[in-house]
Specification:
The protein has 260 residues and is α/β, with parallel strands linked by helices. It has a single domain, classed as Rossmann fold. It has a six-stranded mixed β-sheet, with helices on both faces. The protein has a three-stranded antiparallel β-sheet with strand order 2-1-4, with helices on one face. A hairpin with a 2-residue loop joins strand 10 and strand 11. Helix 5 packs antiparallel against helix 6.
Amino acid sequence: MIVAAQAVEVRRNGAAVVRDLSLEVRGGELVGLIGPNGAGKTSLLRALCALDPLAAGRIAYDGRTPAEIGRAAFGRTLAYLPQNGRIHWPMKVEDVVALGRLPHGAATLDATARRAMAEGDVAHLSGRSTGTLSGGERARVLLARALAVEAPVLLADEPVAALDPYHQLQVMELLRERARAGAAVVAVLHDLTLAARFCDRLALMDRGILAALGTPAEVLAPGPVAAAYRVSVESGTRDGVPFVIPWSRLDGPERTDPSP
């Protein structure tokens, strides 16, 4: 599966929040979507999911748009984990995860859904009401629901934001495993160390544009990070794996969005 965004523009309240952005993600890779708050990351992800309309450009999956794929088939093509996912009414955990099987015919707790619960480390919560869960537990339940779709494309918006360090590592390992199994995986991340360690490529967004695209070493170099985040970084390797730590704020004038 190849996900291709070509010259995409997304507008919100009359303003362009994503501008002339082109990005291709292939099956078998985990791409980290990074950038400061307000850079347009969530807007791009929602556009990739066909949840927000495009003001310009085209998004295709193996050459076909979501409209050409069709609603039912598109539900099996893509799984989406939204930012700050909410469960609006009390349900059993197993019932929430089973909803991931709905695109395949019925919301049943089949072997795939049970495997997704185990992968998300929520099998022990199976009979619990979602209203009794912590924020981190609820986040893992929603991830398990997305995994249960078994779609060739997985888009995750800040999947580790509410998690403790153990589960942050577990989720990043899981996303990488999904990519290694052939899925095209895109994850919005704020933790640059996790992004450097687990992602094959990074796409750095800044004020609605794609400011840098490449390997973690290329994108997390001092120059691109300073320009986008206004911070300096310290970097190194451990067992051949790179890590990056934001170290100090860089003084300078507040940035303003450039004219579209």
